[in-house]
Amino acid sequence: MATNMAPGGTPSASTTHGRTAAHGRPTSGWLTFAGLVAVVLGGFNVIDGLVALLKPTYYLVTEERVLLFNFTAWGWIWLIVGIVQLAVGAGILAGQTWARAAGIGLAVLAAFGHLVFLTAYPVWSVMAIALCVLLMYALTRPAHDSVAA
């Protein structure tokens, strides 16, 4: 495996054999991918929440056909979940261990939420559920002590 070398033959500050010099922990491209997916999914959920709050007629069904709550409640739920997912995505990219656990929990919560919200906008919900499953995999695949590359 190649090592990044600084002038003079010493290892550079960026990486040495897949380990970050700053943390001494292995890096993982999966965690970088997971952080980016969490940010994208959070952005999608923020948009979903804003649409539900500001233009509920955009959805394919009326409020009577949405399970559990009305569009205003779903708007606030998706807005809050999305904002938290954006923060968790940033935490994953920053190498925070808590963010991996929170990311998995939020992905499970969002997947079930989109399953319940499926009748309102099926294509969007199916896409969001697929991203949630992909995020769960990307967060559980790397070693426990890995950080984003």
From TrEMBL:
It comes from the Bacteria. Residues 30-141 form the DUF7144 domain. The lineage of its organism: Bacteria, Bacillati, Actinomycetota, Actinomycetes, Streptosporangiales. Keywords: Membrane, Transmembrane, Transmembrane helix. The chain crosses the membrane at residues 29-53, 73-94, 101-117, 123-140. Residues 1-23 are annotated as: Disordered. This is DUF7144 domain-containing protein. The keyword Cytoplasm does not apply.
